[in-house]
Specification:
The complex is a heterodimer of chains A (about 450) and B (about 130). Chain A is α/β, with parallel strands linked by helices and about 450 residues long. Chain A folds into two domains: about 120 residues, Aspartate Aminotransferase, domain 1; about 260 residues, 3-Layer(aba) Sandwich (Aspartate Aminotransferase, domain 2). In chain A, about 35% of the residues lie in helices and about 15% in strands. In chain A, the strands form four sheets. A seven-stranded mixed β-sheet of chain A has the order 2-8-7-6-5-3-4, sandwiched between helices. In chain A, strands 11-12-15-14 form a four-stranded antiparallel β-sheet, covered by helices on one side. In chain A, helix 7 links the parallel strand 3 and strand 4. The longest helix of chain A has about 40 residues. The mean pLDDT of chain A is about 95. In chain B, a hairpin with a 2-residue loop joins strand 2 and strand 3. In chain B, about 15% of the residues lie in helices and about 35% in strands. Chain B is an alpha+beta fold and about 130 residues long. Chain B is built from three helices and nine strands, in the order E-E-E-H-E-E-E-E-E-H-E-H. Chain B has a six-stranded antiparallel β-sheet. In chain B, strands 4-6-7 form a three-stranded antiparallel β-sheet, with no helix packed on it. The longest helix of chain B is centred in the last third of the chain and has 11 residues. Chain B has one domain: RNA polymerase II/Efflux pump adaptor protein, barrel-sandwich hybrid domain (OB fold (Dihydrolipoamide Acetyltransferase, E2P), Beta Barrel). Classes of the chains: A alpha/beta (about 450), B alpha+beta (about 130). At the A-B interface, loops of A face loops of B.
Chain lengths: ~450, ~130
């Protein structure tokens, strides 16, 4: 439905129809001393060209890939975004439509969401996916709350190598909910979790929350972790901030995961300085009544025609109130659509190819860097497109020197782990060229040799 | 079957209780199932769970609403009607028979005295409808 504002003439007609003199009459219920007198204090309106100039100047403060090579990952990934995505989602039917509460007039929106849910199930190997959540961090928090509901237990075990910002969001959610946490340490050599570290996982744990690939880029042994969690009667929650990894790694659902959640930003959504993003959330069929968020189902109408509709609404706030599975009453409709278009364009084969390129380029870069004197790979576990490099000098210093060469070298891990002063988290995607990697490696070499340039 | 069989006791929340020795069997009444419409899901407690008279022991879902079901008298659950997991519509079709929900050990049989008889329940409903 289109939005067209009312003209002054139309407002007059409406008032006359109501038998009302002026619009002030409609606000007569508000005490006089609270009513606004005079216009709001706003800066004067800009013309269209002034507005464009203003936004251009703001945009000019951003650095985009074309200007500088970036090796930043850590939860926000630079992947190629086909132009046609923007064209399709800019269609008014998608861009301005609201929530599909009325299935009679929203079949297009509902079907798109249903396709999204189906693709997420296929990628994660799970049975039921919701229509999306805000982002990967809140999806993780929702997974924790769901595990607590399902098991009736109030403690969770979090992997030490879970994204620190995801962990912070989980902490915020559980802080006043009577849920406590324990940390499962990662192995200092591999960077991944050792199943032995789960030996003392108590019978009071609702969920084991792990990330794979983990924050350091390493791939976790999901099946072994699933077994350990299930033995303690806990659910295994697998968090996937880099969804592209699902294009090549074995689906977590096939490795015993009970809940798979994460971030779909890698599927056609720009990094956008951290958001808006698109959290995905998928579970085993037996838990479908405990899943948070919107669910689109496929059904038949009174005349036997196939159609789509929001379903299992009794989980939600507007019906179950404080006993709802979550207080979310929305989804990231437009972003889920971008991800759906992206996945449709690439298809199974294309996605696998992109994922393979990530693996190959990242391993090429890792090999080149490891061959440099003074630099080494910090962890030994297999990785997808991110890895940690131990540098000969503090990472922040290295980054400053790289910046002068217009290279964004990665994330200094000391930002989250103060003792990892010399560690740098490097990400290489299919958008990184060989030249960029070689230039990066070459500059790293010169920095370590203290060559002035 | 009669709308409100007189071999059963009733609560003002529209549950029925059948005494079976020192066990009780409970479910929802004809009035309740009709008011709810098509039931799509019944949430039941686990065996061993204990409830005090009037406490919710589960819930009944129709397409657009969820309603708690309250235990008529205090007890400990010994059996639940697992058939309802796949066939919740039995509650609509046969609320006093195949649609039974839980069987429990009655912990205080004196509480049964405060329940309504079939005619008292019928009066209660007709008052409600005005």
């Amino acid at each position: 439905m289109r939005y067209i504002p009312n003209s002054a003439h139309e407002r007059e007609l409406m008032l006359r129809d109501m038998g009302v003199e002026s619009i002030d009459y409609l606000f007569r219920g508000i005490p006089a001393h609270l009513q606004l007198k005079g216009p709001l204090k706003l800066t004067p309106a800009l013309s269209e060209s002034e507005t464009l100039d203003y936004f251009h100047s703001l945009a000019a403060r951003n650095v985009i890939h074309a200007q500088e090579a970036s090796f930043l990952g850590a939860g926000a990934y630079d992947h190629f975004i086909p132009t046609v995505i923007d064209t399709l989602i800019s269609r008014a039917e998608f861009l301005t439509s609201y929530t599909p509460y009325q299935p009679e007039i929203s079949q297009g929106t509902l079907q798109a969401i249903f396709e999204y849910q189906t693709m997420i199930c296929e990628l994660t190997g799970m049975d039921v996916s919701n229509a999306s959540l805000y982002d990967g961090s809140t999806a993780t928090a929702e997974a924790v709350l769901m595990a607590v509901r399902v098991t009736g237990r109030s403690k969770i075990a979090l992997a030490a190598n879970l994204h620190p910002e995801y962990r912070e969001v989980v902490d915020t959610y559980i802080h006043h909910a009577g849920i406590t946490e324990q940390t499962i340490p990662s192995d200092p050599v591999t960077g991944t979790l050792k199943p032995e570290a789960l030996a003392d996982l108590g019978n009071d744990v609702a969920a084991l929350v792990i990330q794979s690939p983990n924050f350091f880029g390493g791939i976790e042994s999901l099946q072994a972790l699933a077994d350990a969690a299930h033995e303690a009667g806990a659910l295994l929650v697998v968090v996937v901030p880099e969804a592209m990894s699902l294009g090549i790694l074995k689906a977590p659902g096939q490795c015993g995961a009970d809940i798979v959640c994460g971030e779909a930003q890698s599927f056609g959504i720009p990094t956008s300085f951290g958001g808006a993003y698109c959290g995905f959330f998928a579970v085993r069929e037996k838990y479908q009544r405990q899943i948070p968020g919107r669910l689109v189902g496929q059904a038949f109408d009174g005349e036997g025609r196939k159609g789509y509709v929001l379903t299992l609404a009794t989980r939600e706030q507007h019906i179950r109130r404080e006993k709802a599975t979550s207080n979310i009453c929305t989804n990231q409709g437009l972003y889920a659509l971008m991800a759906t278009v992206y996945l449709s364009l690439l298809g199974r084969k294309g996605l696998q190819e992109v994922a393979e390129q990530n693996v190959q380029k990242a391993h090429y870069a890792a090999k080149q860097i490891a061959a440099l004197g003074g630099y080494k790979l910090r962890f030994t576990a297999p990785f997808f497109n991110e890895f940690v490099v131990t540098c000969p000098k503090p990472a922040r210093e290295i980054l400053d020197r790289l910046a002068r060469q217009k290279i964004i070298g990665g994330l200094p891990l000391a930002r989250f782990f103060p003792r990892m002063e010399n560690e740098l988290l490097v990400c290489v995607t299919e958008t990184t060229t060989r030249q960029e990697v070689d230039s990066f490696t070459d500059t790293l070499k010169r920095i370590s040799e203290d060559t002035e340039f | 079957m009669a709308k409100y069989p007189d071999n059963l006791q009733y609560t003002k929340d529209h549950e029925w209780l059948k005494i079976e020795g020192d066990l009780g069997r409970a479910g929802i009444t004809e009035f309740a199932q009709e008011a709810l419409g098509d039931i799509v899901y019944v949430e039941l407690p686990k065996i061993g769970e204990k409830f005090s008279a009037g406490e919710p022991f589960g819930s009944v879902e129709s397409v657009k609403s969820v309603n708690e079901i309250f235990i008529p008298v205090s007890g400990e659950v010994v059996e639940i009607n697992e058939v309802l997991a796949d066939s919740p519509e039995l509650v609509n079709e046969d609320p006093y028979g195949k649609g039974w929900m839980i069987r429990f050990r009655i912990t205080d049989s004196s509480e049964v005295d405060s329940l309504l008889s079939s005619s008292e329940y019928e009066d209660f409903i007709s008052e409600q409808e005005h």
